[in-house]
Each structure stands twice: as C-alpha cells, then as structure tokens.
C-alpha cells in the first residue's frame, strides 16, 4: 500500500507529508530502494532544505499526498573538468 502511494507521488511530482519517529515531515519524494540490510527505504528532499535524506518504510506513518503542491527535482550540476 505504501509503495503505491509513494510511486504515485513520485510520478506526479507531488509533495508528501507523513510522521517519522513521531515527527511530521514534508518531503519531495525522489525514489524508492532497499538498504544494505534489505529493508525498503524512501529517498527525498525535506521541505526547505537542500539535503536528500533516507527514510525507512517501517517508521513512516500517516502518509498524505499533497496533490496541490508540485515540485521539480533539484539536479546538481557537476563542474566539467578541462
């Protein structure tokens, strides 16, 4: 169920809001993966920061897709070497 919610938010570029360790997080979801220990994780940029963080699935509660808050992902530009 969580996977479908996150996939929809990633494809439609919608921000999401959820509880993580009883702290409210607003996030721009980027991609889903598994960690080195085999657990599902979500990567995304926390609202009002430039930091990409990893969130473990089993600690995410009360997911809400904010359909009216769209975003475009920040793509870092790598300086070219001459």
Strand order of the largest sheet: 4-3-2-1-5
β-strand percent reads: over 45%
What is the oligomeric state here? single chain
Number of strands: 5
Any overview of this molecule?
The chain is globular, with a radius of gyration of 14 Å. The protein is mainly beta and 82 residues long. Strands 4-3-2-1-5 form a five-stranded antiparallel beta sheet. It has one helix at 2-12; strands spanning 14-20, 23-34, 40-46, 52-56, 60-70. A hairpin with a 5-residue loop joins strand 2 (23-34) and strand 3.
Topology, pairings included?
Elements lengths: L1 H11 L1 E7 L2 E12 L5 E7 L5 E5 L3 E11 L12
Antiparallel strand pairs: 1-2, 1-5, 2-3, 3-4
Question: Short description, anyone?
Answer:
Helices cover 13% and strands 51% of the residues. With 82 residues, it is mainly beta.
Keywords:
82 residues; mainly beta; 5-stranded antiparallel sheet; 5 strands; globular
């Amino acid at each position: 169920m969580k996977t479908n919610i996150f996939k929809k938010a990633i494809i439609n570029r919608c921000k999401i809001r959820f509880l993580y360790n009883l702290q409210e997080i607003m996030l721009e979801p980027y991609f889903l993966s598994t960690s080195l220990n085999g657990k599902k994780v979500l990567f995304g940029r926390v609202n009002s920061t430039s930091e990409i963080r990893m969130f473990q699935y089993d600690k995410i509660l009360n997911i809400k897709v904010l359909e009216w808050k769209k975003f475009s992902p920040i793509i870092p530009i790598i300086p070219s070497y001459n």
